[in-house]
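User: structure tokens for this one?
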Amino acid sequence: MEKKVIKFITVDNFEKEETYLEQMSKKGWHFVKYEELRYFFESGDPSDIIYQIDYHSSTDGDKEDYLQLFKDSGWIPVFAYPIFDGEWCYFKKETASNNSPKIYTDNESKIELFSKIRKTWGTFGLILSLVFLPITFITGILTSNSFLIYFVLLIFVFIALLYIKMVLNLTRKIHQLRE
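Assistant:
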């Protein structure tokens, strides 16, 4: 049996996503893939599985070597979601299979991951804003429909605030790890 769940979790909170997937496995719903804000699960026996999410960009080296490193550490690749110049990679592991279940166990590697995510999504948010802001002004100039102008402006503000929130949250996490 398959289950689809619509859930919106931003990239700066991927730890919450990992926790959510772990809770679903304990209920007997095992993560299969993610697509368009939907999580797909397969029914099975309740399990104590740990999920880890990592971002592998095209500049991080060969993907096969990357996956092999995790497989050698007991991690099972579940799904890869292509985005920007890389992929969100989902891994799982039975909790009893290793004493150190996390991929990132030291602060420096966590800082590196958070910095990479912040740079990628911050750059995308800036580019999106630079493209969307002129569209907002052009809409205002070409139309006298105030509802349309406010609607487009509202979408722009929402997107800008979302990306600002993500960058600030990742920056906060980096500073906490450095202390």
